[in-house]
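Researcher: We plan to redesign the surface later, but first we want a full-length starting point. Tokens attached.
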């Protein structure tokens, strides 16, 4: 196969959520490869300073549920859609389940409808491994496993998005791809109440505050560098065999939360504080191991820095 990156030169690409942690990196990557990128993002969980700005990028501020904004972005006739906008994530969805359903459910449905109407050549849906396998899934996590034991509205609506993708693929022939991300980290992500552990640990450590560790700290996760997720997404946009498929997009490295805390504390000379806090809603679904039993995780598409 020709280098997949050559494919994007001159392509018109819509990135929903393009101001977010992963979307902003994807947008910059696409623009560097010569794509014309349209971002649709309402900045509900992104900062304005994180909106990528350079020639070849058009930013449309708006909600994926807003018909006027949808018409505006699809008027540009995107050939590809990367649908990353989402109500993020577990605890947020427990606190605001209706908004979660509207954005992740109805928003995804609207994007799929517009993509069919305008003959989009590929629709890439940002799915979530932590969400859709649920907390009861056998390890290693395999793509064919389906769980009905999902524990937050976010997990349910990320699964719902995949199911709608399947419907649009089977019924209308829309070429969909469903990469499932695992715990992204890297530039572009801000700390916050509903955000991931790494930016929050960095924030607290830089403030000289102890890092609150939920659970025992022995829990492990697959942290995936955002640049690797972008690379996987770029491949998902091109590879023929990916159409209609779901696949894990992960590092295949299992890391203990306690080790992450040590790594972040070391340069800042901060201290670890180990609390006996309960895991927040949905957190248990991201765990690869509670007891540090070594590698029990496997992934179809592996990416390494
Ligand atoms: N970060 C992870 O570890 C992870 C893991 C698995 C899956 N995902 C999925 O990847 C995608 C991107 O995640 P992220 O970490 O970049 O999250 P993020 O919150 O940084 O980005 C999401 C973006 O969508 C925008 N947005 C939210 N609601 C919107 C709406 N109604 N209309 C338009 N824009 C809206 C936000 O402003 C934000 O810029 C999401 O779909 C998420 O579910 C992320």
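Model: Full-length starting sequence:
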């Amino acid at each position: 196969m020709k280098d997949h990156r050559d494919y994007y030169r001159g392509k018109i690409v819509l990135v929903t959520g393009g101001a977010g942690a992963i979307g902003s990196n994807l947008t910059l990557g696409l623009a560097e490869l010569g794509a014309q990128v349209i971002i649709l993002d309402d900045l509900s969980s992104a900062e304005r300073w994180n909106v990528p700005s350079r020639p070849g990028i058009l930013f449309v501020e708006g909600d994926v549920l807003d018909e006027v904004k949808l018409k505006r972005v699809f008027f540009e006739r995107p050939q590809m859609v990367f649908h990353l906008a989402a109500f993020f994530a577990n605890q947020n969805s427990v606190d605001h389940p209706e908004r979660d359903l509207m954005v992740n459910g109805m928003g995804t449905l609207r994007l799929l409808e517009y993509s069919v109407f305008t003959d989009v050549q590929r629709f890439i849906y940002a799915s979530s491994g932590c969400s859709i396998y649920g907390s009861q899934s056998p390890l290693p996590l395999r793509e064919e496993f389906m769980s009905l034991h999902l524990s937050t509205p976010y997990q349910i609506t990320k699964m719902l998005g995949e199911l709608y993708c399947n419907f649009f693929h089977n019924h209308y022939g829309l070429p969909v791809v469903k990469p499932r991300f695992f715990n992204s980290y890297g530039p572009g992500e801000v700390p916050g109440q509903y955000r991931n552990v790494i930016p929050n640990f960095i924030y607290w450590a830089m403030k000289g505050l102890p890092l609150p560790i939920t659970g025992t700290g022995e829990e492990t996760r697959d942290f995936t560098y955002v640049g690797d997720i972008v690379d996987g997404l770029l491949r998902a946009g091109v590879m023929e065999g990916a159409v209609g498929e779901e696949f894990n997009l992960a590092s295949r490295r299992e890391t203990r939360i306690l080790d992450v805390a040590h790594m972040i504390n070391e340069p800042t000379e901060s201290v670890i504080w180990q609390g006996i806090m309960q895991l927040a809603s949905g957190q248990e679904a991201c765990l690869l191991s509670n007891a540090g039993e070594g590698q029990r995780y496997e992934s179809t598409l592996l990416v390494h820095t």
